[in-house]
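Is it possible to get an amino acid sequence alongside its tokenized fold?
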Amino acid sequence: MKRLNLDYRQDHRLSQYSAYFLLGVCALIGSIVFIHYTSASTENANLTALIDKVEGVSQSKGSLSKQAQLNPEAQKELILFSNQVINKLNMPWGDLFQSLDKANSAEIALLGIEPNLKKGVIKLSGEAKNFKALFDYMRGLNNKSGMAKVYLIEHKINDQDPDQPIHFTLEASWTSKL
């Protein structure tokens, strides 16, 4: 009689190799996670030290401001600067932009707006396609926007550009009511 083989298991060599491969992948992922953790903790420590340094500087500036309160000259300068900031914040920016928008032209590009509250003037710098567009814009500022005494302070033609735009600076009188 023949010997009966009742072992129905398959060959486990393939599963052994896949288990070792899976173990290697897990070890690789674990080492990558560990490296990222150490770099993140180092960065966290550096940022914490930087925050402590900044807070120390701000606390030392706080002690300087106490000294400045004792000095009347520094106090006057601080008050003047604060008043200038408050005046700029209280300026009717919305009204100013609406009045500039009334004189808007497709041939004009405004590049800068510099209001001077003390003198009651505003300087506008920009670029125009041609002189006709610039003068039409100036007339529009005078008529439509409520600004007065619009003057061309300077202009310069850009010869290097093929369209030869005109860089200009205008000055206009205005009131805070606009």
Observations:
- The chain has two domains: 10-90, 92-173.
- Residues 13-70 form the longest helix (58 residues).
- The beta strands are 108-116, 121-128, 148-157, 166-173.
